[in-house]
Amino acid sequence: MKSNVSLGQTFLAILISFVFIAITTLSVLLGAVILPLVVYYLLNIKHKSNYHFWLIFISFMLPAFLFLSPVVWMWFVVLYILTAVIHHTLSKGHSQELALFYGTFALMLSVVGGLNLLQMTGVINPLADTYMDVRNWYVEQIEGTGALSFAGLDIDVFRMALDQLFIQLPAFITIISFFVMLYTVLMLRLLLQNKELKPWPYLSFKDWAFPRFILYLFFILYIVSLFTSPEDTFGTIISNAYVVVEWAMFLHGLSFAYFFFLEKNMNKVLAILLLIPLAVLRPLTVIIGLMEMVFRFRLSMKLKRK
Question: Three-state SS for 200?
């Protein structure tokens, strides 16, 4: 049975949110570390009273619009969107994997949308201008030390590599959002033990398997990327989508490797240790993921087990 939220809990939630935003403004990394704790507190409030949950949102946003910078209320909106999405997955009994999927894209879209809004309102300089300043300064430093000449690299090739990284910025924000969401979900699983709001059904990493349409999407994006330029809008979309799908294939390969080790009765600690070089050798792990999706090794091993 849901209980009411006291006035003290309401003010404490506002205070905790403000502390989280202050820390995140100073260091995004530290903000990501304490994110599960803040989300956990807001989840409890939303589970008890949806009215108080949104009352806290309005109570914070009204003064934030008037007296605080847009960066502050942007982080608060991101926090609330993520909390609402996580609560939805918990209350509807969704799987942990679906929670990761929803949470990743909610976090990514919130951050990208917030950055675009801050650029449109002139709060921050356009990212392209900032990137050009950083790139030019970095190239000057590299040229000054002669590191490229020593390595036998051409300066134009180096610039093109940096440009490609900037073009794929949304893809890398998506990947970072996934790992932030993964950390948040794992921490919430610990915090939600023996609570009214039950955690997601557990699924071991060895059983993580992406649907096969990822394989088709991977090849389609790869072929299309051969005939597009990353400098135009369509090419940028294809380039970012390809990076995200490639990382999905990487996780699929890593999961299958762990499954394979355990199926061969390998010690779990040793199996985890063997995942470290596979995580470092990402191209090899992507190939493993591709081969598994093509030939269905996991399914064959499960059928032999029966």
Answer: coil
